[in-house]
Amino acid sequence: MSTDQPVTVEVGLGDRAYDILIGSGLLLRAGEEISRRLPGTRAAVVTDENVAAAHLDTLKAGLEKGGIQPTVITMPPGEKTKSFAHLEAVVDGILAARLERGDVVIALGGGVIGDLTGFAAGIVRRGMNFVQIPTSLLAQVDSSVGGKTGINSPRGKNLVGVFLQPKLVLADTEVLDTLPVREFRAGYAELAKYGLIDRPDLFAWLEANWEKVFAGGPERAQAIAEACRAKADVVARDEFETGDRALLNLGHTFGHALEAATQYDGARLVHGEGVAIGMALAHRFSSRLNLASPDDAARVEAHLSAVGLPWRMSDIPGDLPDAEALLAFITQDKKVSRGALTFILTRGVGQAFIAKDVPASEVLSFLRESHPVSRKAG
Amino acid sequence: MSTDQPVTVEVGLGDRAYDILIGSGLLLRAGEEISRRLPGTRAAVVTDENVAAAHLDTLKAGLEKGGIQPTVITMPPGEKTKSFAHLEAVVDGILAARLERGDVVIALGGGVIGDLTGFAAGIVRRGMNFVQIPTSLLAQVDSSVGGKTGINSPRGKNLVGVFLQPKLVLADTEVLDTLPVREFRAGYAELAKYGLIDRPDLFAWLEANWEKVFAGGPERAQAIAEACRAKADVVARDEFETGDRALLNLGHTFGHALEAATQYDGARLVHGEGVAIGMALAHRFSSRLNLASPDDAARVEAHLSAVGLPWRMSDIPGDLPDAEALLAFITQDKKVSRGALTFILTRGVGQAFIAKDVPASEVLSFLRESHPVSRKAG
After folding, report:
1. What own/partner pairs with CB < 8 Å and gap ≥ 24 does A369-372 have?
2. What percent of chain B has pLDDT over 70?
3. Which of A52, A328, A360, B139 is the most buried (most CB within 10 A)?
4. E-strand spans in chain B?
5. Domains and their CATH numbers in chain A
6. Which of A82, A148, A185, A220 is labelled catalytic?
7. Name one GO cellular component term (chains A, B) (predicted).
């Protein structure tokens, strides 16, 4: 265990401002960091069975050092846990522990646990204190900033939830060592996204240093901190997602369509991989629309490829539906106004923008050209 | 149907400010009032079977006039509807109607429907527009101001929910004509409460005019407006219930204990009746502690009695648990710090205050004296 000082990113949201601490060994400092900010608090920890097996004892030891003996609520792992039934179970667990509004609910886990736990913390007694301890790279760079919490509905993902800013986020870079490499890579796609949105320097730095980020040196904490800062900037401009925050969807329109087209089968495509392909397609599509240089698209594709991420549709194992069907997944996901779609496009690396009038016909032509079947045929 | 202009109460909560319109015939003006504030909106109406039978056709006609054809979601009547299962059903109904964040969810009903619907509106897509059309007097003077929404848990009432301010409240005084008189009276207890908290003029006015309020003249709208203004003032000072808002609990500590002691059996005691007895007891207890004159307690008792409300424990049909058991219900409801309890006490009509150090022993002695069995024995 390292004893390096963590990096602190302040998320400036007025009276909802909070710190993200990023570094190794933070699980063991959890009690100290929480009790410094929320003195005398009692706590519940919500986690899943896999994360509990790997990290719960360490966290409990860390909380103990701050005088906190938490109630532990353990959920099954997996996306299905983001449901009303599990929400009710977490809520009941918190109430059974007789926690009050000033007490704290701690999420120890990936995005699923963070989203579910934050939602529960936001509704028990109409809002308790919430602390996030994200244990996946994706959760550290994505859900740790922004205050979105929620569960899925049979009618769609993340359709039910609240905005709740945490009081503190502890991103322990050491726990990422236990992640399967494929999951780490998928999180890395979201990390690289922040460079592509509006931080060209970050993207260039990642091109030079990604191997160290994967290896787990101080560059890992540095990269995560930079991504959190980038997201915090966007969120501070648009906390409740009425405008600029849409930039965070770079790569997500194509990505979601591909996830849906593969029936959310994680064996074929996980979310971060969908985003990777989606980002490459968004750059290539922008180039096709003469908005950006083809060199930029090639540069993005090359980097994703270098780190081992999929970047084109043909990288997805198995057959895909045809271009018309993929377009239908896109239009299902969005309101289509007079045949025009909103997309996040780009003028080059770090120059993404919200394009509100993308003709569906252009999207369709592009999907046809990019489709593995067409490519083989052509 | 009257065509009087409604009274408008503005609830000043910064960017969450909204209007309460109070008057007769407002159901028929709903479409106009909503579309003026939320142009082009689509809507879902959530109601219960009883209210739907009495008022849904009128509301639909009123919405139609504003070009709104709502999806209707009908729940069973009664407190049991404030559950996770019904919350999920309402959420699913809103999503099934494909409403977006800018669309509106309308609650047509009493407190149960208002609390449940507001909670659903607060979590679908992380917050939609919410309009309240309260159809009970209690809901018009209580839940229409304050932004508290929620459901019950097996571990207690209203333990799960969010704060969500509506965009508009339409308090149609005409719909109150269909209320059973016992329910109207129970709502009146909460109305009188605002006079007792900090509006002595309102209480005196009610003493002189309560019969007109019950009869349904312009005095009814006037009284409701005054109660809403009183509550809005308290809520504006303390939106998220960290201080002054506790004043709204006048009568509720004793009242909740009596509700619990009668197993929430509405045939014996409904919430507003518990509050009526609780308010009388709070005044009598304040007098016993030499905080207020016994004349004030007698005045409160006389008014509650005049309107036909219960005001003492012996007014509750059937046997009550003894004083020790009632105290246990009170301490169960609250955190007890070193034998001291927080109570809303008073220095006289319109002079309520938060007392944080009320000895449990004093409460017990008072309960013994006030208990019907002791009184009969004594």
Report:
1. A369/A288, A370/A281, A370/A284, A370/A312, A370/A313, A371/A313, A371/A320, A371/A322, A371/A323, A371/A326, A372/A312, A372/A313, A372/A314, A372/A320
2. 96
3. B139
4. 7-11, 18-23, 43-48, 71-75, 104-109, 129-134, 151-153, 156-160, 168-172, 340-346, 352-359
5. 7-179 (3.40.50.1970), 186-378 (1.20.1090.10)
6. A148
7. cytoplasm
